[in-house]
Amino acid sequence: MIERKKINDIGILEEIYNIVHYNNDARASWFGPYLPDTDIQKYKPYANWAQQHWSMYYGFLNFITDFEKGYKILDAGCGVGYDTILLSNFFKNSNILGIDLCEKCVELGLKYNKNKNTNFKVDNVITHKSEEKYDYIFALEIMEHLPSDEHHNFIDNLLSNLKEGGLIFLTTPNDLDMPDQPNEHIGLLNRHRAKIFIDKYKSRFHYTGFYNNKNLLDPNPLNYTIEEDITTYEDKKGVKSHFKIIIK
Prior knowledge:
- By secondary structure, the chain is an alpha/beta fold.
- The chain has 6 helices and 10 strands; from the N terminus they run E-H-E-H-E-H-E-H-E-E-H-E-H-E-E-E.
- It has helices spanning about 10-20, 45-60, 80-90, 105-110, 150-160, 190-200; strands spanning about 5, 35, 70-75, 95-100, 120, 135-140, 160-175, 205-210, 225, 240-245.
- Strand 1 (about 5), helix 1 (about 10-20) and strand 2 (about 35) form a beta-alpha-beta unit.
- Helix 2 (about 45-60) packs across helix 3.
- The radius of gyration is 17 Å and the shape is globular.
- The two termini are about 30 Å apart.
């Protein structure tokens, strides 16, 4: 169980606030290794967003059976590394690397979210290479921030860095009819791209489902996970807000 702790230091909260929309992008940000909270109303939405983002990570952990083993883990597109350090609460004997192109984010990760088994570096998720492959790769809410013509390069590169028997945990918004934005969500997995994505990678799917972002503040993943095959992506019913995919 991860302890909840409030941050009420205005200086630290302003660092969080300033990084959220830094450099024409958007990222859920907080400083750990605690669940996010604050008494200061202005910053509560950022705490909630960080909690929702962590919930998506947490919803994958039931696919891992032995947390005591020493794994090599990549958090691809880690931002300031808030989810990275929360993962370290579970993977206490593992080495977890967070990478991100944002130098300022990595700087804050090293300042606030580094511990004995987390580390951070500036690197590109599309070209990153590791001599020793990873047991688990987390790539949550990243694809929509990449140009659409790089989506398959991104997945293929993650697969090239994955150990045999390893797993890639992936989420991305199910905004099928929303146009790409000039910044932030620049490459959404829209209706046409989703079909191509499924056809290309379905042989590598270990699990597919959806998240309901309306319920992500619920502590129980059963209450925000929709157990339907990803091929039902066009039938959104107002709740299939995010693809939840495990690739092997």
